[in-house]
Amino acid sequence: MDWLAPVVLELAQLGPWGPVLFILLYIAAAITLAPAFFLTVAAGALFGVWRGSVIVFIGASLGASAVYALGSLMTRSRLMARVTRDRRVAAVRDAVRGEGAWVMFLLRLSPLVPFNILNYALALSGVRYVDFLIALVGMIPAIVMYTYYGKVVGDVAALAAGVSPPRGAEYYALLAVGLIAIIVSTTMITRAARRAMERQQQRS
Questions:
Q1: Which residues are within 8 A (CB) of 185 and not within 5 positions of it... i.e. 6 or more apart?
Q2: Degrees (nearest 5) of the Cα angle 5, 27, 32?
Q3: Which residue, 173, 136, 152, 118, is CA-closest to 42?
Q4: Could you give the CA distance from residue 102 to residue 189 in angstroms, rounded to a whole number?
Q5: Cα–Cα distance for residue pair 73/198, rounded to 1 Å
Q6: What are the E-state strand segments in the chain?
Q7: Which three-class secondary structure state does DSSP give residue 22?
Q8: Taking the model in full, what pTM does it have?
C-alpha cells in the first residue's frame, strides 16, 4: 500500500477527473494484487457512500475483467498445460466451471476471500466470462459496507496512516453470511470435483 495511499490522496484534489482516475487506479490494483480493501474504504471518504459504491463497482468489475483476460492468456501457456494434466487439478477446474455463476457469486459474497486473489483463481480455472461477470454482483454488499465505513472516517489521510474504520453489527453479519457462503461453495465444488474424478476413472 506504500504507493497506493499517496496516489489516492492526490485524487482528492482532481475534481471531476477524480472518479475516472480512481477507476483506472482500481483496475491497476486488481492486476497488481494491491489491497482493494483500502481503495474501497477510501472511495467512501472521497466520494460518499452511494457514489463511491458505484465508482468502486465499476472499477472492480473492469479490474476483474482485465485479470480474466490475463488469466485466459495464462491458461494457454505450457506451464498451465502441464499443471492441468494432473487429474485432481483438472477435476477441480471442471467442478468450478460446472457449477458456474452460483458458486462464484457465493465466493464474491464473502469478505473473507480477497477480491484480487479470487479474480486470478477464477480466471485460471477457465470459467465462462459471462458467469464470471454475473457473479460480480456478489461484491455489492461488501462494497456498500466498506464505503460507508470510509464515509464515517471521512479522512483519506487517516486511512492511509492506518486508522481502522469502525466495525459495527453489519460487519459481523456480513462476515457470518460470508462464512456460510464459503462453506456452501466449498461443499459444492468438492462434490462436483469428486464426481468429475469418478467420471475420469470410469473412462480410464
A1: 99, 103, 106, 107
A2: 70
A3: 152
A4: 11
A5: 29
A6: none
A7: helix
A8: 0.80
pLDDT in tens, the chain (204 residues): 556 667 777 777 777 888 899 999 999 999 988 888 888 988 988 888 899 999 999 999 999 999 999 887 776 666 555 545 555 555 556 666 666 788 888 888 887 778 888 888 888 877 889 989 999 999 999 899 889 888 877 666 566 655 566 666 776 777 787 777 767 777 776 666 566 556 555 555
Side chain identity at residue 106, one-letter code: L
Residue 27 Cα distances to 20, 71, 132, angstroms = 11, 15, 16
The greatest distance separating any two alpha carbons of the chain, rounded to the nearest whole angstrom, comes to 63
Distinct helix (H) and strand (E) counts, the chain: 12, 0
Q: How far is Cα 24 from Cα 157, in angstroms, rounded to an integer?
A: 20
Q: Using alpha carbons, select from 176, 180, 111 the residue that is nearest to residue 143.
A: 111
